[in-house]
């Protein structure tokens, strides 16, 4: 599967990218970066580092530094650490981002791989919305847009009703939903039902000393956030679940609902199920085989160096 990951790395973004790099059925064409867990500058540096760690020769295109309409928000340093990888110090990549902006790169790749390209957005979905605005054919050129976002039938994680990625750019998600593209939401409805624990990260380090070791060190701070703030032992398998949903939708229970995102006010970022002609149809992951999704993540990630 030809895949582009749009990302704000981020600990679970790193898990998703290193998974995708190792998954034999994924042809990872490139990464695009976006603000969110960190600034877009830090996201771009982290994405370049991950690409180099994985030994991939793929482009990284820098994207949006803020959302479409909401004033700049502070990155989630308390969740992912100031540099994005917990308390692992920042490391400078050798390479640079390409000159093309993320939205332009997405448009070009969707034209080049018409009906083949899947875009997996695991941060605020601003770049994808910009690509839709840039090219009226983008939504039909892409095969599918799978996003980590939303909390449709469950509580939010950044506010009581909103998931972080949708909260950071609700207008962008409404543009994506309205575009007519085939959109799948992999939200907290499933990702909080699949936890990765300290033991899982130790297991990854044992089997894949380089990548697993990096993830174990990076996850330390992240797991601490889940323990002290959320009150659970383990982190949600957010971004990796979205990547797995791209290639293995059969592992998920997907319902079609008309969805609209609340754009402002106390419920900003809430993914609402609409009746009648309100909202736009999207596939919503509401459950699935959690054990198999996690087993797949572990099995493939263990094959990393
Ligand atoms: O709500 C979880 C999402 O927010 C994940 O994409 C995580 O990386 C953060 O961006
Ligand atoms: Ca993310």
Task: Note down, in words, how this protein is organized.
This protein is α/β, with parallel strands linked by helices. The protein has one domain: Inosine-uridine Nucleoside N-ribohydrolase, Chain A (Alpha-Beta Complex). It is 41% helix and 18% strand. It contains 13 helices and 11 strands. The strands form 2 sheets. The protein has a 9-stranded mixed sheet, sandwiched between helices. Strands 7-8 form a two-stranded antiparallel ribbon. Helix 5 crosses helix 8. The chain is globular, with a radius of gyration of 17 Å. The model has no long low-confidence stretch (mean pLDDT 96). Calcium ion binds next to helix 1.
List keywords for this structure.
305 residues; alpha/beta; Inosine-uridine Nucleoside N-ribohydrolase, Chain A; 9-stranded mixed beta sheet; two-stranded antiparallel sheet; 11 strands; 41% helix; globular; binds alpha-D-ribofuranose
CATH architecture: Alpha-Beta Complex
Unreliable stretches, pLDDT < 50, 5 or more residues? none
CA(first)-CA(last) distance: 22 Å
Principal-axes shape call: globular
Ligands bound, unique: alpha-D-ribofuranose, calcium ion
* Major sheet size, sense and barrel closure: 9 strands, mixed
Mean pLDDT: 96
What is the CATH third-level topology name? Inosine-uridine Nucleoside N-ribohydrolase, Chain A
Structural class: alpha/beta
Estimate the helix proportion, in percent. Answer: 40-55%
- Superfamily (CATH H level) name: Ribonucleoside hydrolase-like
Q: How many domains would you count in the coordinates?
A: 1
Strand content range: 15-25%
User: What count of helical segments does DSSP give?
Assistant: 13
